[in-house]
Amino acid sequence: MAAILRTVGIVVVAAWLALLLAKEKFGPEAVPVTTSLLGVGLALIAAGIALGFLGRARAAVARSRCARCGTAIPRGDVYCRQHFRDTIDKMRDSQRK
Ligand SMILES: [Zn+2]
User: Alpha carbon 56 to chain centroid distance?
Assistant: First the structure.
């Protein structure tokens, strides 16, 4: 979604630049260039970047919480120290039986 917004924004800005070049060549009467098109393009790019940043931030927050109790833990870990130890102890017990 974020990537699509960014791509569409870049295309709109590129189209605006193409219109600007056409205006230089054929004169302002032949090619009406609106600055609002540039605004729309830049807004789309900004929205895409903001959405991508939000998604990444949300994923980072979701990753740094214990799967059982929800305590903050280092990035990449699944459980907090207590629950990590519990899980290993349970695995050991089940293998012993
Ligand atoms: Zn925990």
Answer: 5
32 pLDDT tier (thresholds 50, 70, 90):
confident
Task: Count CA atoms closer than 13 A to 91's CA, side-chain side.
Answer: 6
Q: How far is the CA of 95 from the centre of ligand 1 (A)?
A: 23
For residue 48, report the distance from its CA to the centre of ligand 1, in Å. Answer: 35
Q: For 5-28, what is the mean pLDDT?
A: 86
Task: Choose among 45, 43, 47: nearest CA to 10.
Answer: 45
Q: Where are the domains of the chain?
A: 1-63, 66-97
User: pLDDT-based confidence at 61, cuts 50/70/90?
Assistant: low
**Mean pLDDT, rounded, of the chain:** 86
Question: Ligand 1 centre and the CA of 62: distance in Å?
Answer: 14
Ligand 1 center to residue 53 CA distance, Å?
27
Residue 97 alpha carbon to ligand 1 centre in Å: 26
